[in-house]
Specification:
- The chain has 313 residues and is mainly alpha-helical.
- It has two domains: 71 residues, no CATH class; 215 residues, MetI-like fold.
- It contains 13 helices and no strands.
- The radius of gyration is 24 Å and the shape is globular.
- It starts with a helix and ends in a 7-residue tail after the last helix.
Length: 313
């Protein structure tokens, strides 16, 4: 119980630190969101009126406290650029980014786990060397370049998929999956390499344990030893690194959404930064940070559930 409480308290204080860094970082960045919206030709009365409307005429500590209070009430403010609530703007883009995240993670696990096991099983053999070679390539290639290559091959040359655009799930489920499958693959490939690397090393480490030799001495074949003993313990580090993968998926989607012209969180964030839409940028960074922290918290809980031997140091 103390383990879970400790993790929750750590997440809570991390969120507070994130709000402090997010708010005060944008206070010291040069530029004025009011002038960004009104233009340099606006008169002093218009500027003063909009600053008062946005609350920018109040002292910084007061604005921070008010901002946090509004967040606790579910109010992330109003976008300067779009004149719409930040919450509504994020909500409309969530299905795209979440579709990318879920499908790319499923691809990562479905491909990475079997290849990681095979890489360990055929270590120092031709099959293992081939998987390691492919892994090195995937680790070195950035997602946006993979996305461009996928568009060229499957969108332009083979014409199997439409290169760009998004179809919502409510309009056409099949076309919705087709519209996100290529960007999901582009995001997944580097993460597949990470899973293969971690799982291979973990399996090889577990194969040296005494309990594995004991299982072989009882007459169990390699398949049963791997299935019933090795994989269960070897997959735990993969669960730990899954939080890192989810974070990289959210970060990778920022560029991949631009490459595939998908109307997701990434494109909205880049647009908000370009227009110096501070309420929107702050709200989105806070949302992404909270999502990553919450997912890592769930993974820590799952990690403890799978391996009860974990104790608080």
């Amino acid at each position: 119980m103390y383990y879970y409480l400790r993790k929750f308290i750590a997440m809570f204080f991390t969120i507070i630190i994130v709000t402090l860094i997010t708010f005060f970082s944008f206070e010291i960045i040069p530029g004025d969101p009011v002038l960004s919206k009104l233009g340099i030709d606006a008169d002093e009365a218009q500027i003063a009126s909009l600053r008062a409307e946005l609350g920018l005429d109040m002292p910084i500590p007061v604005r921070y406290i008010k901002w946090v209070g509004n967040i606790l009430k579910g109010d992330l403010g109003e976008s300067v650029r779009f004149s719409l609530p930040v919450y509504d703007l994020i909500k409309t883009r969530l299905p795209v980014t979440f579709s990318l995240m879920i499908i790319s993670i499923l691809i990562t696990l479905a491909v990475g786990i079997p290849l990681g096991i095979l890489s360990a099983k055929y270590n120092n053999r031709i099959g293992g060397f081939f998987i390691n070679f492919i892994t090195q390539i995937f680790l070195a290639i950035p997602s946006f370049w993979v996305g461009i290559m996928l568009i060229m091959i499957f969108g332009v040359i083979l014409k199997w998929f439409s290169p760009g655009g998004y179809v919502s799930w409510s309009e056409n489920p099949a076309e919705s999956i087709k519209s996100v499958i290529l960007p999901s693959v582009a995001i997944a490939l580097p993460n597949i390499a990470i899973v293969i690397r971690y799982l291979k090393n973990s399996v090889l480490e577990q194969m040296k344990k005494d309990y594995v030799r004991m299982a072989y001495s009882k007459g169990l074949n390699s398949f049963r030893v791997m299935k019933n003993h090795v994989i269960r313990n070897a997959v735990i580090p993969v669960i730990t690194v899954l939080g890192m993968i989810i974070s990289s998926v959210l970060a990778g989607s920022l560029i991949v959404e631009q490459v595939f012209t998908l109307p997701g969180i990434g494109r909205l964030l880049i647009s908000a930064i370009g227009n110096r839409d501070l309420p929107l940028v702050e709200g989105m960074i806070l949302y992404i940070s909270f999502t990553v922290l919450f997912i890592n918290f769930i993974i820590d809980i799952l990690y403890k559930f799978i391996d009860p031997r974990i104790k608080y140091d």
